[in-house]
Design a protein that fits this description.
32% helix; Peroxisomal Thiolase, Chain A, domain 1; binds octanoyl-coenzyme A
Length: 374
């Protein structure tokens, strides 16, 4: 009996609204003018540092990001507000993350040629869920009409790859037979739009993947999981202190450390060698060579970082479609980035071709899955 496990369908929900670098920088610079005017006295007496302007040139050169999609634009670009203003929904309405995840999941099910009732496990795997309980996964399970059980899991940028690994393990154990791994990422609500270092980094999106056994799979495009490896190593260089204890210290409940913040340069320098050695050992243990990969669906945080990874794995002169970039239009979408690339860029792969789905980010965490077109 063939025990192979496959990703048999993927789905993508792209939010309706978007923001260009130009719009974001214009609003940030208006905020800088406002701040510097309001603190004129303290700035001239040397008690407060004046804020500096952001620039589109810097953002594009340092990150490759040109544009991002957001669930709600209203508020983000207003220098007096600088956050998405989202209406709270009643408990008996579908939550925002469930709505986004549902739309991505329906596409993944259609590609896998499955009905919701064929699914017996829903995993919502993303950087943040909008509440602790009931799990967003259970809400989606009910809204779609799936059987079995559901749970949420959070491993920052590696949530989706770790989610697929968890799905594979649970199928192998017999705890589930067909799994939806859904990543509804509303990063815009955790961005500090007043921080020049990070105001441009993130966008919103939702992705979904169906994981099941190859035997009985009806998909035209199944991707067999031929190896997976997850690793974490504690680091404070990417951090958000947002959490359920915030309200217990009211004086600092809304301080900047409750939003995403990072030491970007340090992250860049520390993560790259970790990624190289992680992938080296994974390929060596699997008896494979990186050159055998026909496509690299990499995490989408920084174009320069991806170019280093591609160069290390495949050398110079690699055609751009070998390691597709979607962060130029989607920005960093946390755990969903590599899955967007997988969803959008599979054309030209033939039966037997292999590719690598790989995420890296906060934790630190790295999740990598070697896939083979059946
Ligand atoms: N405009 C103009 N100048 C700027 C700006 C700006 N917007 N921002 C910074 N500068 C200045 C700096 O002040 C600095 O000036 P100086 O040299 O005078 O000190 C100079 O530009 C260079 O700054 P950096 O060294 O910070 O610039 P880098 O080249 O390192 O680029 C990046 C910054 C783009 C952030 C880069 O370091 C990077 O991408 N690093 C990798 C980060 C990464 O991969 N992080 C993963 C995080 S994502 C994740 O794990 C998910 C978290 C969960 C989701 C969160 C949802 C919100």
């Amino acid at each position: 009996m063939d025990n192979s496990i496959v990703i048999s369908g993927t789905g993508l929900f792209t939010p309706p609204e978007s923001i260009s670098n130009e719009e974001l920088v214009e609003s940030f610079n208006a905020f800088v003018d406002l701040f510097n005017r309001q603190h004129e006295g303290e700035i001239s007496s040397g008690h407060v540092e004046p804020l500096a302007y952001s620039s589109c040139e810097f953002i594009e050169k340092a990150s490759g990001i040109k544009h991002r999609y957001v669930m709600v634009r209203d508020g983000i670009l207003d220098p007096e507000i600088m956050m998405p203003l989202m209406d709270e929904r009643a408990a008996d309405s579908l939550s925002v993350q469930a709505e986004m995840g549902l739309l991505a999941a329906q596409q993944a099910l259609a590609e896998a040629d499955l009905d919701a009732a064929d699914i017996d496990l829903v995993i919502v795997a993303c950087a943040y869920t909008q509440r602790a309980y009931p799990a967003v996964a259970i809400e989606i399970q009910q809204a779609l009409g799936c059987r079995g059980f559901g749970f949420d899991m959070q491993v920052a940028c590696s949530s989706a790859t770790f989610g697929v690994s968890a799905a594979q393990g649970l199928i192998q154990q017999g705890a589930a037979s067909r799994v939806l791994v859904i990543s509804p990422e509303i990063c815009s609500a955790q961005v500090n739009y007043r921080d020049r270092d990070s105001h441009f980094i993130f966008g919103d999106v939702a992705t979904a993947m169906v994981v099941e056994r190859l035997q009985g799979c009806r998909s035209h495009l199944p991707l067999q999981i031929i190896g997976q490896r997850c690793i974490t190593e504690y680091s404070n260089n990417i951090r958000s202190n947002f959490g359920f204890l915030n309200r217990c210290t009211p004086a600092t409940a809304y301080a900047a450390d409750k939003l995403f913040h990072q030491q970007g340069r340090k992250v860049f320098k520390e993560l790259l060698p970790m990624i190289y050695s992680h992938l080296d050992s994974q390929f060596a243990d699997a008896g494979l060579e990186p050159a055998m990969m026909k496509r690299l669906w990499l995490h989408q945080a920084n174009i320069n970082m991806n170019q280093f990874v591609v160069k290390k794995l495949l050398g110079e002169d690699v055609p751009p479609d070998m390691a597709p970039i979607v962060l130029d239009t989607y920005a960093n979408t946390a755990s969903a980035g590599s899955v967007i690339a997988l969803h959008k860029c599979r054309e030209g792969l033939r039966s037997g071709d292999m590719g690598l789905l790989c995420s890296f980010g906060a934790g630190y965490s790295i999740g990598s899955i070697i896939l083979k077109t059946v």
